[in-house]
Specification:
Number of helices: 8
Shape: globular
Number of strands: 0
Number of domains: 1
Largest sheet: none
Strand content: under 5%
Structural class: mainly alpha
Length: about 230
């Protein structure tokens, strides 16, 4: 994950703690990627939630609780942790629960971006373009969701697409390149996940989903708090 600039962290102990948390979290990311790549579910069940706990610790140490944007960021990260735990179980009910957690988490990200300021609204078009590409690539996702779970699941997936689109647009509209890259990777991660779930899973699906997901979350945190 990106190295912390820790602006405003004049206390060297705080800066050191942030660095330690970043290194530990990066290690947890790598452990989860290894577990997914090698189909070690026993390791994944521990590393996946631990990675998000580590990222939450980074955000807290970097002062997320001191601002409205940071507090919304913490809400989004906690909901990401909840979604991760639910998605560890492959059942349909847990999948819907995870989908709901991430949907609300994306709304929290939107609130965080609005709180930090949409200073470059014209860049929102970059986020819209990212979404458009994802919709074209994943054009079979919605029909697949309808076939898999009926109207209810289809509506839920459509709502999720709309919300992550809003996150992509507002993330870029902050004018912070690192945040924009983060939300774009989130769109990639969720598109690959949905393609694997509702269209066709490929051998690399799970690894790509987790790598892009973790980097997305890390970049958003870095863009809002560490750069």
């Amino acid at each position: 994950m990106p190295a912390p600039a820790t602006p405003g962290c004049e206390d060297p102990l705080v800066s050191f703690a942030v660095w330690v948390a970043v290194v530990v979290t990066a290690g947890l990311f790598a452990a989860d990627w290894w577990a997914v790549s090698n189909r070690r579910r026993d390791v994944e069940r521990r590393a996946k939630p631990a990675a998000m706990v580590g990222l939450i610790a980074v955000a807290l140490l970097a002062g997320a609780a001191d601002s409205s944007a940071g507090r919304w960021l913490l809400v989004a990260l906690v909901l990401g942790l909840v979604g991760d735990v639910l998605l560890l179980d492959g059942t349909a009910s847990r999948f819907v629960g995870g989908l709901a957690a991430f949907l609300v988490g994306h709304l929290a990200y939107v609130a965080s971006f609005v709180a930090v300021g949409l200073d470059r609204p014209v860049l929102g078009w970059v986020g819209a373009l990212v979404l458009l590409v994802a919709l074209v690539v994943g054009r079979r996702i919605l029909p697949g969701a309808l076939a898999d779970g009926g109207t209810g699941l289809g509506v839920a997936v459509a709502a999720y697409m709309a919300v992550i689109g809003a996150m992509s647009i507002t993330g870029w509209a902050t004018g912070r390149l690192v945040v924009g890259l983060g939300v774009s990777l989130f769109v990639v991660s969720d598109t690959v996940l949905a393609m694997g779930r509702f269209v066709q899973e490929r051998p690399w699906t799970s690894v790509v989903v987790m790598v892009t997901y973790h980097l997305a979350q890390a970049l958003i945190v870095a863009g809002l708090l560490l750069t």
